[in-house]
Amino acid sequence: MTAKVWNVGDVLTASDINVFLVALSGVKSANQIISSQTTLVNDADMRFPVAANSIYEFHVYLRYASPTGGDWKSSFTVPAGATAIFQRFGTDASGILVGTGENLDTNSVTSQGQGASTHQNAQFWGTIVTASTAGNLIFQWAQNTSNAGNTTLFANSYLTGRRIG
Q1: Where are the domains of the chain?
Q2: What is the mean pLDDT of residues 58-71?
Q3: d(Cα 114, Cα 70) in Å, to the nearest integer?
Q4: Where would a tag sit more exposed on the chain, N or C end, judged by fewer CB atoms within 10 A?
């Protein structure tokens, strides 16, 4: 699972460029609104494919709004046998700007809602290590506590990454 090393005289192929140098991304194409939804939603836009037996680094930029009391939670889903490890920088469930400790794709990270009209931002950084199954790294999100108010993930939020091994 190490990154490819080229030697003098090796030919750099289009496949090599696409695998190791082209950024992967999933950009939110339009605002998406949920309400009374506490089950994590697999985002339709914020995802990218990952190969088997590989390592990727990734970054997420979020722009969202959630009702006070509804709050926000998010995580990732990964292919069978893979593990994602990530850290989030944003407001926690108490409204304090923090960077979280190490989280796994099996964890949900919560952020405080400050009202449906208050736009907030959060960022995630992490790695995913895949096993023998290829698939997708997919950003997931929902309300932390069921609330009839609208929780919105805004257009142009994104997930980006690149293969590093």
Answers
A1: 24-163
A2: 91
A3: 9
A4: N
The predicted pLDDT at position 90 comes to 85
**Rounded to whole angstroms, how far apart are CA atoms 102 and 86?**
6
Measured between alpha carbons, how far is 48 from 42 in angstroms, rounded to an integer? Answer: 12
The residue count of the chain comes to 165
CATH fold of 24-163: Jelly Rolls (2.60.120)
Question: Which are the contacts of 8, defined by CB distance < 8 A and separation ≥ 6?
Answer: none
Query: What pLDDT digit, counting tens, does each position of 104-133 carry?
Result: 998 888 876 777 778 889 999 999 999 999
Owner of token pair 């995630």: 124
Q: Indicate the SS3 state at residue 154.
A: coil
Place of tokens 């605002």: 31
